[in-house]
């Protein structure tokens, strides 16, 4: 039996609309084209599918049985077609992004939410993690895009570097807020909230104080910028932090000041060098890099 899917589509469309005219509109073909497809299907099936009653096509009992089988197939292929269209338009699929902790509390969720606004069928896989783990995940194919701190650890990755100028966060009631710019000399004796000794920001801040010949006092060490900021909000000291974290912190409880000499935070956006990205991933990467460029300018 040489039944073609287009014949089943015509049958399905007539069964649901009740007219050849309605089926033609659904399928985007002429009314004679629909009638011809139904005639072909009836010849193959060797039984009538519709009877014309007062200008309307009434399904035969055999057509009712056939419809129940055909409905799942036709709707399933319609879903496949819609999925292909969504992928072509970058509307469907899964966005897979991993980010360092500092950007995962405001910057990345906001950007992903904006990207997803007109993509209701897109699913999202997002995780925050330490930078070395993020690079490992992208190499392994668990995520398409990673945003993390430098340096690049794997030759299998492509990197888009960007640097952010760190700023000082202080409690609003700290007397040092009277200064428009803070330096090691101004911060002499002020308790600092800092990342651990191995972190880039810790090393570069220490170098700035050492070069100025100013001793520094670290009151609290922590492993996340978000935790460091929480101690600042409690009035326990000042901290030199990633500006993107601070821009998206809604709780308040701090003010910021520039620090001199400048302390830069080196970051990278990583993707796999060996594995092709999805159209959705490429579209988000473009948006991400544009937003980062604006934040760095």
Automatic annotation (TrEMBL):
A Pfam family of this chain: LysR_substrate
Source species taxonomy: Bacteria, Pseudomonadati, Pseudomonadota, Alphaproteobacteria, Rhodobacterales
Assigned protein family: Belongs to the LysR transcriptional regulatory family.
Entry keyword set: DNA-binding, Transcription, Transcription regulation
InterPro entries attached to this UniProt entry: LysR_HTH_N, LysR_subst-bd, WH-like_DNA-bd_sf, WH_DNA-bd_sf
Keyword tRNA-binding listed: no
Molecular function per GO: DNA-binding transcription factor activity; sequence-specific DNA binding
Highest rank taxon of the organism: Bacteria
Entry-linked PROSITE patterns: HTH_LYSR (PS50931)
PANTHER family given in the database record: TRANSCRIPTIONAL ACTIVATOR PROTEIN LYSR (PTHR30427:SF1)
Name of the protein in its database record: Transcriptional regulator, LysR family
Gene Ontology biological process terms from the UniProt entry: positive regulation of gene expression
Annotated HTH lysR-type domain residues: 3-60
Keyword Transcription: yes
């Amino acid at each position: 039996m040489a039944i073609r899917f287009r014949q089943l589509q015509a049958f399905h469309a007539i069964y649901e609309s009740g007219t050849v005219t309605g089926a033609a509109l659904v399928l985007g073909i002429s009314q004679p084209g629909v009638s011809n497809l139904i005639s072909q299907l009836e010849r193959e099936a060797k039984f009538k599918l519709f009877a014309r009653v007062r200008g309307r096509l009434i399904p035969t009992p055999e057509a009712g049985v056939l419809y129940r089988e055909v409905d799942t197939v036709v709707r399933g292929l319609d879903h496949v077609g819609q999925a292909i269209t969504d992928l072509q338009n970058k509307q469907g699929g899964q966005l897979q992004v991993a980010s360092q902790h500092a950007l995962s509390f405001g910057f990345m969720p906001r950007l992903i939410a904006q990207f997803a606004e007109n993509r209701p069928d897109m699913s999202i896989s997002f995780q925050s993690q330490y930078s070395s783990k993020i690079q490992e995940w992208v190499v392994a194919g668990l995520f398409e895009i990673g945003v993390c701190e430098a340096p690049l650890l794997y030759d299998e990755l492509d990197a888009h570097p960007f640097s952010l100028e760190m700023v000082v966060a202080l409690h609003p009631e700290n007397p040092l807020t009277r200064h428009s710019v803070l330096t090691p000399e101004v911060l002499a004796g002020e308790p600092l909230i800092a990342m651990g000794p191995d972190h880039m920001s810790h090393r570069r801040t220490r170098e700035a104080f050492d070069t100025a010949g100013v001793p520094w006092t670290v009151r609290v060490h922590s492993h996340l910028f978000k935790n460091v900021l929480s101690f600042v909000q409690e009035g326990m000291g000042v901290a030199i932090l990633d500006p993107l974290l601070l821009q998206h912190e809604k709780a308040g409880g701090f003010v910021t000041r520039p620090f001199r000499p400048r302390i830069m935070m080196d970051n990278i956006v990583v993707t796999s060098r060996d594995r092709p990205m999805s159209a959705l991933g490429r579209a988000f990467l473009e948006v991400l890099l544009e937003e980062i460029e604006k934040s760095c300018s």
